[in-house]
Design brief:
about 240 residues
Length: about 240
């Protein structure tokens, strides 16, 4: 999903009747740095540098096969520009359709994306947003769905993404958020209503209903199990490398 798409689908390529100009409201929901985060702190500065180094592999010019950064001149020019709302929308839709993800998963992904950005102070840009959004959806899928694709299955849905790439992106992503995959009802509700408001402003149907308390409890339990499972999986992979 990051560079040259090898898939084609009438369903995916069809533009829907979405007033994307009205979706500018989403920009107000990006996390803002608090004043306390501007105070100098050597430990915090050191941590920020480590976070920045780790997060840099999300850039499209990082090659997982060689573990090196490639010349930006090898990347198509349109991938170096800030994406439009339509580009982000179509990218997410492709990931969801090819991976057979449930409709609730983008809400889970948004929770983790904000958690990472608020924890590390890092943010998305033209070079890293595709990998960042992709792995957020992958992790969200595993937390939401017992029958989610495994990483090896994602590589079959997206042949241009290697298993090493997905494993490393997932490991670094989870490390940056401290493997904290727990979700409470208020977090889910916050992003549910944000997305519903955006849909209403854009005059788009929003079929999701608020989550029932029983489903919230089920999600919390599954998030805890997934958190333990993924931590164990990546610890085993680290030891066998």
């Amino acid at each position: 999903p990051f560079q040259h798409q090898r898939h084609s689908s009438d369903e995916l390529d069809r533009d829907e009747d979405v007033d994307l100009d009205a979706i500018d409201a989403t920009k107000t929901y990006l996390p803002a740095k608090s004043s306390s985060s501007l105070k100098p702190d050597m430990n915090e500065a050191s941590s920020s540098i480590e976070h920045l180094k780790a997060f840099s592999v999300f850039q499209l010019n990082y090659d997982f096969d060689t573990d090196q950064y490639i010349d930006l001149g090898t990347i198509p020019e349109n991938y170096l520009k800030e994406p439009s709302e339509r580009e982000v929308y179509k990218f997410c839709k492709k990931v969801m359709v090819y991976s057979k993800m449930e409709e609730e998963i983008p809400i889970i992904a948004l929770i983790y994306m904000e958690k990472l950005m608020m924890t590390t102070g890092l943010s998305m840009n033209a070079l890293n947003w595709r990998r960042f959004v992709f792995i957020s959806l992958v992790v969200g899928s595993k937390v939401w769905d017992d029958e989610s694709f495994e990483n090896v299955h994602f590589t079959k849905a997206f042949p241009d993404v290697s298993l090493k790439e997905i494993n490393e992106l997932e490991r670094i992503y989870l490390s940056l958020i401290g493997y904290r995959l727990n979700i409470n009802g208020s977090e889910y509700a916050k992003y549910y209503f944000i997305l519903r408001t955006v849909a209403e402003r854009a005059n788009v149907k929003f079929p999701l209903k608020p989550m029932h308390i029983d489903k919230v409890l089920e999600l919390q339990s599954h998030a805890e199990r997934t958190q333990q499972t993924l931590r164990s999986v990546h610890e085993i992979m680290r030891k066998t490398q």
